[in-house]
Amino acid sequence: HKVIQVNLCNTTKFIKMLEKRYKEAFERASEERQELILETGIEEFSSKGYEKANINVIAKKCGISIGLMYKYFSTKEDLFITCLQRGMKILDDILDDLVKAEKVIRATCFHSKKNANYIKLYNEIGAIKNKAMVDILATAIEESTSQKYIKSITQALENGDVRSDLDPKLFAFFLDNLLTTLQFSYTCDYYRKRFE
Questions:
Q1: Contacts from 187-196 at CB under 8 Å and sequence distance 24+?
Q2: Are 22 and 73 in contact (CB under 8 A)?
Q3: Distance CA 131, CA 136 (A)
Q4: Are 87 and 140 in contact (CB under 8 A)?
Q5: What is the DSSP string of the chain?
Q6: Rg for the chain, CA atoms, rounded
Q7: Rounded to an integer, what distance in angstroms lies between the CA atom of residue 28 and that of residue 68?
Q8: pLDDT by residue for the chain (196 residues), tens digit each?
Q9: CA 184/CA 187 separation, integer angstroms
């Protein structure tokens, strides 16, 4: 029963991660302000890591008071997760439009160059000391992309665009790992120099 209870607890946390983590005041803020706060948060989290990122610094860089920041987000974790959700939304939008492998790779390269801080932000999840939070965040992101890959691969199978003996789940796992490695290469100076 303990295993079931732990799994239910993790499932509840996973579902909570997918819920909105900002307050109504943030929804009322202008689109420009929302974008400024999230982009500044992404920059802070991706450059300093979750543990060292400071919500006071983010507020100051945005030109707003810390009090207003807490009217938007209850905690630093809520801001961090909202930043992650923004990155996931961008990735979901890109994946919705993709069909062929070459297009996926080109889109991954373009997205990774243009949004390197999102990739760094994702990479920072592993540095968070709260293992339960790490598991929840990583699962949420990975399940989102995995389902998109499986759906695209299944559709390609049905259309006869790929070999009929291809296992969609196995290929989705392979593709996700390949693209994750490609994404991380855009956040590392060594690999960026190799692209020049």
A1: 187/112, 187/116, 187/119, 187/120, 187/123
A2: yes
A3: 9
A4: no
A5: -HHHHHHHHHHHHHHHHHS--S-HHHHHS-HHHHHHHHHHHHHHHHHHHHHH--HHHHHHHHT--HHHHHHH-SSHHHHHHHHHHHHHHHHHHHHHT--SHHHHHHHHHHHHHHTHHHHHHHHHGGG-S-HHHHHHHHHHHHHHHHHHHHHHHHHHHHHT-S-TT--HHHHHHHHHHHHHHHHHHTTSHHHHHHH-
A6: 18
A7: 12
A8: 444 444 445 545 544 556 788 999 999 999 999 999 999 999 999 999 999 999 999 999 999 999 999 999 999 999 999 998 888 877 776 666 555 566 777 777 788 888 888 888 887 887 888 888 888 888 887 887 888 888 888 888 888 877 788 888 888 888 888 888 887 777 777 666 666 6
A9: 5
Quick one: tokens of 174? 């392979």
Task: Evaluate if pTM is beyond 0.70.
Answer: no
Please give the single-letter amino acid code of residue 111: H
Q: Which of 195, 191, 182 shows the shortest CA–CA distance to 105?
A: 182
Residue 115 CA to residue 128 CA, distance in Å, equals 21
Please give the structure tokens belonging to residue 128: 């968070």
Between CA 61 and CA 36 the distance in angstroms is 9
Evaluate whether 184 touches 126 at the Cβ level (below 8 Å): no
Give dist(CA 95, CA 103) in Å, integer. Answer: 10
